Amino acid sequence: MQPTHASRRILLPVRNWFIVLTLFLALVLNLVPFGRFPGIPDWVALVLAFWCVHQPLKVGMAAGFVLGLAMDVAGASVMGQHALAYVLLAFAAAGWSRRVLWFPLSQQALHVLPMLLGMQVVMLVTRMVSGGEFPGVLWFLSSFTATLLWHPLTYLLLMPQFRPEDKDVHRPI
Amino acid sequence: MSVAGHAPPPFFKRGPAPLVRLAFFVSLSLFLLIADLRFHTLEWARLVVATVAWPLQRITWLPIDAAGDAGTYLSRQATLLRENEELRRRQLGTANLLLRQQHLEQENKRLRALLDMRARLPVEGRIAEILYAARDPFSRRVIIDKGSQHGIAAGQAVVDDIGIIGQVARVFPLTAEVLLLTDKDQAIPVEVQRNGLRAVLAGAGEGMMELRFLAANAEIQVGDVLVTSGLDGVYLPGLPVARVVKVDRDSSHSFARITCVPLAGVERHGLALVLGSRTELPAQPDDAPATAEQPTRGKRVKKKVR
Lengths: 173, 306
Prior knowledge:
The complex is a heterodimer of chains A (173) and B (306). With 173 residues, chain A is mostly helical. Chain A has 7 helices and no strands. In chain B, the strands form 2 sheets. Chain B has a 6-stranded antiparallel β-barrel with strand order 1-2-5-4-3-12. Helix content of chain B is 32%, strand content 24%. The longest helix of chain B is centred in the N-terminal third of the chain and has 38 residues, at 77-114. The termini of chain B are far apart. At the A-B interface, helix 1, helix 3, helix 4 and helix 5 of A face helix 1, helix 2 and strand 1 of B.
């Protein structure tokens, strides 16, 4: 059964250290030097969007800002570029979370795609204004790969919150 | 509405409204962006964060390193033999030049001493390995494995065995960022090897470069090799930079559009040589009287009527 609001599955409360750990691992994955190879998803943006959708009270724009600064330093880009994009992404994801979680996972991914694309457009605009080089259309491919990963990622990140489905006839839920 | 003396229970407290928080963080980010792009004042913060994150970053290279090692391990012996033979042939080919180079350097030194010129210090180089291309897709940068601990300083030229590939832009303790020639922000003063015509070569993105501000009738043709002119005091004169591949003399523009490709393996990765800083050039001649007569910006230029 899918972990959405429409399903009857009830999840355990999330652990804070697990959120921190996943965001940290996403940052580490982003540091792996793939260079200019197209289609590598922005792991931090994806995991940040995930937690903003699922836990908008715990993860929000402050986390996006801090992670963005870390990415700016690690990626040799301009300070504030990722921070601005992640803050806007976190705002959009947290604002849409009540709507998104009612949909099945494939349609959730369709909601996440414009958020990630919008984040890339924000980065593009900030850098093109300051005289950067257009990175080519293939650069936007990373949002689409990230969208494809939304389905497996949801199961992976919600796994610690699942509890065994034991059917109890005396308790309706 | 809350009754006086009864605060709402703490689980309703969610801090400022989302829009307020958004405005706060966006303005903070914009402040950082402007501070970094306009005033370049955040290099110290970058240095601190990069130094702290260094061990983590080193760990993340491991999978890529391992993949590279596996590739080398599997490369066939025949390839190695062929490469070895090719290298030996090239070494023999250049031995003649190398031997004469020493002789010429000695002779040059004597002649310079004779002319009582300031002896040029020999420029020392430092071999560095290009680790990877930086993630930022809007600029062309690579990371090399030598940093300020190895004597690398910002502004030094980076060359490979054919020509210039770029310039050190930022230095961290154990790594450095090299801004490649093909980056849009990078400009290098060059001259045409054939006739000594001087110009400025700037990156145009996508692995190409552009020779700027040359008149439409400038004497330049496809195939011309551009070398550094050394006027900037950063690059040594005479290092090969690029080859002209397309000259577009459109008479509707006052400048010719000249496209060049870099000679060195700018977008390829491997070993590179970081040249030491050049000795300082003599100070610019004092041109204060000349500027005094020039009108300041914003004023209209009036022709003197005699």
